[in-house]
Amino acid sequence: MWADGFLARAVRRARAALFAADAFVRLNVLFYTSMWVLLGAAAAARQPTTLEFLCLFGVSCCFHVFAYVLNDVVDLPVDRGEPARRHDPLVRGAISRRAALLVALVQPVLAIPFAEALGGHAPAYWALAAAFVLIGAYDLWGKRFVFPPLTDMVQGIGWGSLAIYAALALDTTPTALSWIVAAYAMVYTMFINGLHGAFRDLANDLASGARTTAIVLGARPLQGSGQRLVPRVLAAYAWAILATLIVINAVTLLRNDFGYDPVTMTITAVVVGGLSVWAAALHPRMLRPRGSADDFAWRLQMYMMLTALPVAFAAYADAGILIALLLLNALGLVLWDSTSPVIAWVRGAGRGRRVAATDSGRPVGIATK
Description:
Elements: H1 2-25, H2 30-43, H3 50-74, H4 76-79, H5 89-92, H6 97-105, H7 107-117, H8 122-141, H9 148-169, H10 176-200, H11 202-208, H12 213-216, E1 220-222, E2 227-229, H13 232-255, H14 262-287, H15 295-313, H16 319-335, H17 339-350
Antiparallel strand pairs: 1-2
């Protein structure tokens, strides 16, 4: 019994440490950062060795911590007014702003040994440096720039640069698939940051004087209704971004740089196409939720469009890359506080029931919004 009690305490402590780390460095979206690097490696002209794979993952971890911690440091005054951020260690004061800034700024230095182990090629260093600089620029000026869609794009190019870096780090020329991954990263970031994240934080961003794509294009919360005003220009922008993502997926499959046989192509196209159709069906609810239950629609849409590209690569990528993506995805789903409510929402929608939205106090989102 003593051993059982000790094990139970150890499990609780490990769980608490995991969630504390997640609150600081956003482990729940490490899948998002690593995806661009790993799919970039899968798209390269050759598959990485085990050592190369580990080094690429090390670079992605350094980049991830830099992007999210720096964003939280810069946005701390805004986040203090957001109820969903109340448990963040920076907001609570458990970690000082100076200490967090140091953690963020040391990450590019920590990435150098991993980059050197991959060969230290000059083009690869330039691509990685561009990724760090572009994400840093967004973190500093993303909510202050006069035209936020441009800074959303800058951030997206930063994430997409990771795919190009992966190819160059493996001493190969970026392929058409490499550029497709980079393009998808850019557009998806504009999708999640300029729309989903901006809608989620709409009231607090307005109160804080922040400039986001949704706000600049006219989105406003409707007091007491849980709904929002979405002008036609913003709705058109949102549909255009979603359509671009769907088109990128379609072009990826139509080009068939994977070399899929007809059966594999058919199965892949059905799954990717199904995700795209479902995401489009949810789009009206994401834009203009009819009630608190529809708060889960955007989370489901976000996840479906995020996973559509890895699904397209599923029969092509190296087994090690697929396993890593699956494990990181599982980690994200365990830590993501919306997983259970979204599943309940889907089941309830299928049975004609409505599920009330809840606020666990933990933030959700992917890009550095």
